[in-house]
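Troubleshooting log. The previous structure file for this entry was overwritten by mistake, so regenerating from the original sequence record. Sequence copied from the archived sheet and checked twice against the printout by T.R.
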Amino acid sequence: MRRATIMCLIFVVTFAAPGMADNLLNLPLDDAALVSPQIKADSTYKTQGEASINIQTKWPAVVCLGQIDGLEVDNARLVYQAKVKSRLQGSAYLEMWVEVAGRGYFSRGLNDQANGDGGWKGIKTEFVLKKGQKATKVTLNLVINGVGQVWVDDAVLRKLPLK
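Regenerated output below.
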């Protein structure tokens, strides 16, 4: 009898208790085509090499294009640049996350963006490391604020002397 009462209480608490969480969205992940962004190589549009990366997105997205660990760079300018072609309702820019002494800092190329329907355009963002500020890790992203397609090619991270 006691066991039946406990089972009944478990049922009520689990299934009938008011104020429990409601699912706002169930994601059917049976088909990768429903996920956004979609990323693929595209040999039709390129600026160098065999292909570019084509990113199609249904909503704003951040795409990590690369990361470098084990750096010991200071007293320099880090310049992240790429060539970008867009068919966007919105804009896209480069973002660089730099780890210095275990803390993350970022640089966003908000003044150098690809917008709308445009041909290949070089865009960049920079990060300045003073003497003693050692970068140990750098993450290179493309931020898409909008919907549509972006092609990325010839992405490079350079270390330049301070001016």
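The chain has one helix and seven strands. Archived copy saved in two places this time.
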